[in-house]
Protein 1
Amino acid sequence: MARKNESPQKAAMREMMRSYLKDNAIRIKNGTDVNAIMRDMMSVILEDVLDEELDEELGYSKYDYRNKDTDNSRNGHSKKTMHTSYGDMDVAIPRDRNGEYEPQLIKNTRIP
């Protein structure tokens, strides 16, 4: 249920979180539990944005080979541990075959 003067985006997020917690039988008992959930949410958001950045760099989305107009392509992911106020979190950074992709959201993540 939306709260008074709550944006539609925040109301949707509230409902999604309620469902997520209920469906996965997650009980929040303390701040550590909140940090763990926030860390997981942040890593999922970052990974999705990084994948979209690579789509933009390559000029086509992951399974849209018909519109591929480059000899470069995806080449898996590299793991990066980020230190955040929620604690350390692992993020999967996408790679390209030619090594040209440089993430803009998270600078200096290129792993040799």
Protein 2
Amino acid sequence: MKSRRLHATRLVLACALLPSLLTAQEWSRFRGPNGTGASEATTIPVKWNDGDINWRTQLPGIGHSSPIAWGNKLFLLSADPKTATRYVLCVDSETGDVLWQRDYKSLPHHLHARSSFASSTPGTDADRVYVAWSIPEKTTLRALDHTGTEVWTRDLGSWTSQHGYGASPIVYKDLLILHNSQQANGLKPQQTESGQKPGRSFMFAFETGTGKEVWRKELKSMNVCYSVPFIFSPPQGGPDELVCTSTGNGIFSLDPLTGEENWSIDVFKMRTVNSPITAGGLIFGTNGSGAYSGNFLVAVRGGHKPEVVFQLKNSGKFKAPYVPSLIAYGDLVFCLYDRGFASCIDSKTGKIHWFERTNTSFNGSPVRIRDKIYIADEEGIVWVLAASTKYQVLAKNPLGNPTRSTPAVASGRICFRTYSDSEPFSQLVSIGGKTP
């Protein structure tokens, strides 16, 4: 009898855990599960040929945001580079067929030369997909169900930046959270002449089902920042924390249910574009500028008395990424620098295991598949590196078109987004899924 009760208890626990385990495998936001960029897929080749490509699908418009996935559906935001019309797209991950497309007219406005009108990665859950974009006068946050039917829309007001919009929403429990950083310093003359004022930055949370605002936390507005938050579970225990980075607030932690600040540490003077990660119980972020000379990486221990554990500045032996996010494997942190370098550091000490020249430019962020790192350079060559203390380039695989996006990994496949400037279109390329 005791054995039966024990078996029944185990079965109940397994059933209770199953939904969370399944959800953890969905690539439902920028860089997948909790922004880690990590997957344990076993069916993605290191080096591939045409036989490993499942399909190529051409899509309208261009964009540098990433595809996301739920089940057998890929979701994507794209835009016409001339009219700024936004396209929300759903693609069958097994066949590459476009299941539906929703078009939203918009107005063109000034962008950074390396940006696009679709630089925000959507977020999704089991019921809806969430997209965001902005023109200077209006910021749109929209939810559609998985059939493409609009569920709700919110106007979050004006948005100030000379670079273009790039905030990517995430889902936490039944909340949709959005880091809405805006520019307050150094506005260009054309911006002030057109009536733009210094922006106000907020972290927002909305009910996923209704779009009703649950909380907002005003942040310090300096440089517009594009970091996507993640959920941090303190190694010493305690409630979940929403962690993000910005120029004004540095590395900071909020209660994801209320928006109340847990702690912050002022460590950045320049813009944060990439997104923070955790490794070795620490939180990592970088900041910099397009000039790259002053970039640096910082490792912070959070808590009531947050502290900087170590900091690595750009030098002849290390380069901190500006746009590509960091990626971890155990206690190792890998840095793919925008312009021609890569490095590996120890997450607990800051020791540099290796620093190597790549002679290529990276704009998207890396993903890790088991013990290998995949990142596409701007020419559309996918580099596969060993996630180890020794520098090893395992393969270089051409995609056929340039890319500035981060891939998605779902259902045992990796999906890259490329673009063409000559005839504006995006292309999704799906690779893997077959037993080696």
